[in-house]
C-alpha cells in the first residue's frame, strides 16, 4: 500500500515533558485517516509538526516517499483551530485573497466553492455565515491550492447535527478527488462514520493504528486504551 505520509518516532517536548512521544504514523494515499484521542492527548501537536507550525524535538516526517521539507507545504492544506476568515468579505472574496497569495488561477475559486457547497452565498458576508458554513469556507481555503493532503483538526466542533452531516459527506467525497484527509477528533461516532483508517493517541503515544473494519467496536477499543493509559499514570 502506498503511503502519502509517514512519521518515524516523532517527538515534541515542552519543558522536559513529551507532548508527543515517538509517534510513528502511516497514512495511506486517498483515504480518510481518523486521528483519535482525548483532549490533550497530543493530536494537535502532531498535526502542527506535520504542517510546519511546530518543529519536532526529534524524529522524522516523510511525505510521498521523501524527507519532509517546507517545500511540501504547497501540497498540504490545513484547517487547524479556527478558519482564517475575513468576516467583512464574501466567500468568493475570501478565496480570491487566498488565490492571490498562492498564485492560483481564479477559476479554482468556482471549483472549490462547488466542492464545499457554497456556490449560492453570493454577496453574503462571511461574518453572517452559520458555523457550519464558516467551517466549509475554511476547508475551501485549505483546498484552493489543490493539495494532495488535507489536515482537519476537530472540524465538527460546535456544529449542529445538520452541519456535522454535511461536513461528513464533504470529507468522504475528497479521496475520490485524489485528496487524502487526516481528520483529528475526539468524537468516536463521527470518525466511525467517516474514516477508512484510524490511529489512537493517548498521553502522547500512538497506542493503536489500523484499518477501520465494518462492525468494529471503536468505543470499546478507545476506552480500553484510555483506561489502561490512565491506570498507568495513577499507579
Describe this structure in words.
The protein is of the alpha/beta class and 235 residues long. The chain has a single domain (3-234), classed as P-loop containing nucleotide triphosphate hydrolases (Rossmann fold, 3-Layer(aba) Sandwich). It contains 7 helices and 11 strands. The chain has helices spanning 43-50, 91-102, 107-116, 131-143, 161-173, 188-194, 218-234; strands spanning 3-14, 17-23, 26-28, 32-36, 58-63, 66-67, 76-79, 149-153, 180-185, 197-202, 205-211. The strands form 2 sheets. A 6-stranded mixed β-sheet has the order 7-8-9-4-10-11, with helices on both faces. Strands 1, 2, 3, 5 and 6 form a 5-stranded antiparallel β-sheet that branches. The longest helix has 17 residues, at 218-234. It is globular.
